[in-house]
Amino acid sequence: MIVARIIALLIGYAFGLCETGYIYGKIHHTDIREHGSGNAGTTNALRTFGVKGGIYTLLGDLLKVIAAILIVWVIFKDRYPDGVMLLKVITGLGCVLGHNYPFFMNFRGGKGIACTAGTILMLDIRFAPILLVAFIAIVALTKYVSLGSITVVTGFFIEALIFGNMGWLNIDVHLLPEFYLYCAILMLLALWRHRENIRKLLNGTERKISFTKHEEE
Q: 71: buried, middle or exposed (CB in 10 Å: 19+, 13-18, 0-12)?
């Protein structure tokens, strides 16, 4: 499965390079990286372009990882039925890396939360309900998208450990440690990309989200 792992990672990275927020901005003659937080993700698209731009960016970033994982699943589902779950998470990781560090944008992309969310959905839909409720509740109560995102990625890793140990995931038991490793890397990547947000949350200077274009807190 070594070759399959490499293929999955490369497919994910290639799809991750489709920077929806950046493309949307260019269509509107704006480089999203020159506004707001400076990244090309959904939250900054929402702040920079308003609700419409935020929705397009979110959907685009979700769909690219879903498409990448579907392609990998079609290619390998029959050859590695007990390993395709591992290949899915590797594909998702590749997509996050492509989204966060696109080579053609000097490695300045987004924070990978929408791509991680798409990966979670494609791994097992049972991951989603608790994480979605937690995200909505935290953002609604605090107006901090970063706090909701951090909660989701951390909760995902915890759920992966629980589901795997309970035998709920269709994966060879010998591949579980590697599966957990990639889930941990997804979580750590998100936390690393949110390191400045974490610092601001701790000192009380993090910006709250608004749903009107260019509105400042």
A: middle
